[in-house]
Amino acid sequence: MEGTVKKSIVNSEGRGTLLLVSSILLAVNVILFVTPAYGWWSFIVLAASLFIILFLLYFFRNPERHFPSDDTEKVVVSPADGTIVAIEEVDEPDYFRDRRIVISIFMSVYSVHANWFPVNGTVKMSTHQSGNFHAAFKPKASTENERSLVVIETADGHEVMLRQIAGAVARRVVTYCKPGDESRIDSHLGFIKFGSRVDVYLPVDSLVCIKLNQKVTGDQTILAKLS
């Protein structure tokens, strides 16, 4: 399982992509600038290459965060950066098969795409399922897109489920944990590349602490409090 807090500037999931793209762009620019036919357009290619590299550095950024309180017994912390696009009571069909509160967080291409554990406890289930790539903000993305499912049991017996859902652009959902692992707030749970979504399923008697369309910050914003 992933360590408590990664201290590198670039998330490990982006290092390979960054190295590959940088190598290709470097080769292209070297070829352009050594050829006798280079001109003003070569500088446009150079500027575009620098923009792409800077964007990848920005997208795969890996900020160091710590939840600002030691009182984590009942809190459910946001596992991702983004915008709250749904807060509703639904029938959960995959694991609980009963009524649950679901809080959905849409992660835009500008969001930090690392995911954190939302509660302290023990991982009971961690699965991955291939699927489609609908826009992540659409409701059917929860059941039809590529996704992972992680169930965590807290010390007092509450079960919290988290779904990482790939979006229309994302093609990879990464989940670090496995059943039996310790779940700790401040620890990375996984990573989703490009626009995507995270759903958190809670007991129906949970006290929701956020509202629709609110911006949330991973490992910082309290989504709810368990009873």
Write up this protein.
This protein is α+β, with helices and mostly antiparallel strands. The protein has 2 domains: 12-59; 75-225, Glucose Permease (Domain IIA) (Distorted Sandwich). It is 21% helix and 33% strand. The chain is built from 3 helices and 14 strands. The protein has helices at residues 12-34, 40-59, 141-144, and strands spanning 75-77, 82-91, 99-107, 114-116, 121-129, 147-153, 159-166, 173-175, 182-183, 188-192, 196-202, 207-208, 215-216, 222-225. The strands form 3 sheets. An 8-stranded antiparallel β-sheet has the order 9-5-6-7-11-3-2-13. Strand 2 and strand 3 form a beta hairpin. Helix 1 (12-34) packs antiparallel against helix 2 (40-59). The radius of gyration is 20 Å and the shape is elongated. The chain starts with 11 loop residues before the first helix and ends with a strand. The relative contact order is 0.21. The model is unreliable at 1-6 (pLDDT under 50).
